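call fold(seq) -> tokens
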Amino acid sequence: MEFFKVSNLYSLNKSTYVNLRWIAYIGQISAILIVQFFFEYSFHYFACISIVSFSILTNLVLQFKIKNNQLNNSKSTIYLTYDIFQLGLLFFFTGGVTNPFIFLILIPAVFSSQYLHFLSSTILVTIIAVVLIVLTFFYYDLPHPDESHFHVTEHYLYAIPISIIIGLIFLVYFGFKFGEESRIRKKAYDKIQELMAKENELLSLGGQAAAAAHSLGTPLSTILLTAKELKKEYGNQHKISKDLDLLIGQSNRCREILKKLSLNPSIEDEFLNINLSLNDYVNEIVRSFQEISKKEFIINSENYKNPINTNKSVEIVYGLRNFIGNANKFSNKKIEIFLYSNKKSTNIKIRDDGPGFPKDLIDKHRLGEPYIRTADQRNILKYGLGLGTFIGKTLLEKNFANISFNNSLVTGGAEILIKWKNDDLIKI
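ret:
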């Protein structure tokens, strides 16, 4: 079974699969009974009933003996293979490819293309193709009551499996592509949830640190003031003066550490205020990068006149930090951030002087999609595009932002424009 072992993303929901099988078996029994007793066709009735009865037993085992809610790729492949052979046997006894229900044999492969690995889908398609070819030449006729048979020309008979196989390939291919995109988005959204949890934790720690800095500021100032007063009084005593200098020096060091613990070192109380403007978001984030980056950050907010404050949003914090962080990472020397607003909208433009976005991704409007590919795949690895950009874009769009990507005509580097309608900012 090692051959089939793949990611846990490739699996079937057991309850859904079991229910679909019950529907299929009810339909099969109904068709057999109607053909036997209503239309009075003469065919291998007991063989067909036996096949369906055994299949019902396998579904009971699947429903009550298999405890996992998800069937992994290998088990799913085995069960779907059985379904193909089960249908193949039924068609063998009921007219082969001339049976009007022959198209139902496509369902297991189409089903697998949505949920299973490409290798499993390929194996199932191959099995179906072989079964169809066999059913073209080997089968029991399904006669009418007057013993007449349904006959087709040789060319028509051979065209049936060919057309079904061609349709099968197209259906499975598009089914797999759709399923793959769904799995990619699931991975991306799982990553978002993980990052959001971490961001919440970091913000919580940041809030605690800021609160600690604020709370400890007063007693520390008292210690420092007292030490300075003692210095004035006992400064002429060398030993005491030396100890007081150490105390003053260490107190000042503690004050610097406490300032760094706060995202706003000058006015700690503002950090605790949940009402923030977009200008506050940008300054808060840029300040955190300035502490670790040697590059120049320029914030231009001369045309920012928006008085609207919003509740502090983790999504906005992370989304802006993602784009500002990318600009910091890939710029050569300078990152420019422009904030401007009017009566209807508020905009943030982030511009760097780095290599810019790959042109083919801009032309095809692919930026912001998860796991994107460019004509030069090395650009993805070099510029860090894909999942991170998708997450940042998704988080900001969740908060009513509109995102566009371009290369700057001024610097040639990447340029990201984030727009909010003022009416939407009020909703955050």
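The chain has three domains: 2-151, 205-261, 273-425.
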